[in-house]
Amino acid sequence: MNTSDLQKIADWLIDGARSAPSPSRMMADTCERVVQAGLPLWRVGVFVRTLHPDIFGRNFIWRPGAEVTVGTVDFDIRNSPEFKSSPLAIVFHEGREVRCRLDDPASDRFPFLDDMRAEGVTDYIALPLLFLDGSIHASSFTTKRPDGFSDDELAALRAIVTPLARVIEIISLRRTASILLDTYVGNRAGERILGGQIRRGHTDTMDAAIWLSDLRGFTALSDRLPAETVVDILNGYFDCQVAAIRTHGGEVLKFMGDGLLAVFPIDEYVGDVQQVCGQVLEAARESRASVEAMQYPIGDAVERFRFGVALHVGKILYGNIGGGNRLDFTCIGPAVNLAARLEKIAGRLNRTIVASAGFAGICAGSWADLGEFPIAGFSNAQRVYGLVDETPAA
Fold it and tell me: Is 183 left (phi over 0), alpha (psi -120 to 50) or beta?
């Protein structure tokens, strides 16, 4: 591998690997360019830690003639015997490279290399990928050539990982931004924010089905249980709803104590309002079943839970609202206010799922008329509907 070939690969990476449209393609192209330059790679791995509430890291594995495989690992990996006894543990914890000739008895201390040896691998090197924030990530390179890597080839790999780390860091930063926005403001809002919609007052009008729920008896629960227990209960309670909401096309916009605000956008051009409202109702029924099945042992007793959700459909104002440079991407409007009032009425009627006349009219056949109720802030009383398959709680 001559210096000119190495420099071309480094320059391509420094320029952002622009010809590669995805992280997997970037990794495949990098490995293929290195092989074409004369370095006999077999298996190459890149291991990147992520800023994600559930995922510790992602791994990308390349082999010649095969698609790059992408996997994820959770936080438990750090305590697993497989990780603790691997060369990557040294890279992550100490930030130094690990080189092993597989015919060297010293390599037996890494059980992972037994699998590599079975594939015919003769040489292995793991190199740190150092990000500008000081975090340490990892890469590994193997060959099946009988005499392993030469000193010049090892020097070439060490030289390549520096520009490779820069490209991976840029990709990771953008992915981290996307994950954080998705985690804290939701996917659709996150996409808009990343797309540049970050100015106060930048809003859009949108037709949507609106979901507003809360946990019954939360104030009393908070008063008699330790704060840590309440947080644990809330997390379990929200799990009962969030999965159903997202599965059925909704987006959670906000958690407000024990309250949850979600929207299910309606495409005005497709005219899918009936389908969307049907999905909302299905999500509400699934959430009801999940909350009813939820149990939390406290001492000798088992705590059971109830919640209420109001469903409405209408126009909302969706976008950036706030003060100064502290903004919230949320939705407001009379339709949201009505959903909030209906949710309070659900509590008074001991109902779990209630709907406005507009929503119930779209999902005809599922509802019983519960009567008209005056609504604070609205000039006219509003008719409220409850599910026919639901018996009011005592």
Answer: alpha
67-108 tens-digit pLDDT: 999 999 998 888 899 999 999 999 999 999 999 999 999 999
Q: Could you give the CA distance from residue 235 to residue 229 in angstroms, rounded to a whole number?
A: 10
The string of DSSP codes covering 90-152 is: HHHHH---EEEETTSGGGGG-THHHHHHHTT--EEEEEEEE-TTS-EEEEEEEE--TT---HH
Alpha helix stretches (DSSP H) within the chain = 3-14, 23-36, 81-84, 87-94, 112-118, 151-185, 187-194, 218-224, 227-247, 273-293, 334-348, 357-362
Decide which of 3.30.70.1230, 3.90.180.10, 3.30.390.50, 3.30.420.40 is the CATH code for 197-387: 3.30.70.1230
Residue 392 reports pLDDT greater than 70: no
Distance from C-alpha of 360 to C-alpha of 231, rounded to nearest angstrom: 34
Residue 191 has pLDDT above 60, yes or no: yes
